[in-house]
Amino acid sequence: MYHKLMLENQTMFTKQVFEQLEGRELSSGQPKILEYLYEHDGSVQKDIAQACKIEPATVTSLLSRMEKSEIIERRMQNNNRRFWYVYLTEKGREEAVYVKKAFDTVKEIALKDFTNKEKELFIQYLKRVNKNLKEELI
Fold it and tell me: Which of 57, 105, 134, 138 has the fewest CB atoms within 10 Å, i.e. is most exposed?
């Protein structure tokens, strides 16, 4: 039952987020990156991949599409060609605001009948599940 609920919740959450973002022309994976960059503008690709739990090769592909869509730009710092830093453009910052609003809206829908205490407990439980699963991967 647990795995079915977790998978079903993730599927429904993602579907509803993309419904909120309809017409924004974002592909799967891009909202996570936009949210991360909104809070960590100027990050290197490796950090984006780790934080968003996306394979580095997939991040490369996503960032290339995002650059073509002019929502991010990559810049070198101190003429160091080994690291390119990823920044939101003005258009990207606007998209990130829409993404954050979509995530917040769907979160409110998902937790609408929860008391504040239940929300706190639920988040604590999810963090514990997350920690347990991460420890198994090591």
Answer: 138
Indicate the angle between helix axes 45-52 and 56-68, nearest 10 degrees: 110
At 70, phi and psi to the nearest 5? 60, 35
Token reading at 58? 């997939």
3-state secondary structure of 82: strand
- Sheet containing 72-77: give its strands across: 43-44, 80-88, 72-77
Query: How do residues 101-133 score in pLDDT, each as one tens digit?
Result: 999 999 999 999 999 999 999 999 999 999 998
Residues 7, 11, 72, 20, Cα dihedral to 10°: -150
What radius of gyration, in Å, describes the C-alpha atoms of the chain? Answer: 17
Question: Sign of dihedral through CA atoms 48, 51, 57, 61?
Answer: negative
Q: Whole-angstrom Cα distance, residue 104 to residue 99?
A: 9
Q: Is the dihedral of CA 113, 115, 118, 122 positive or negative?
A: positive
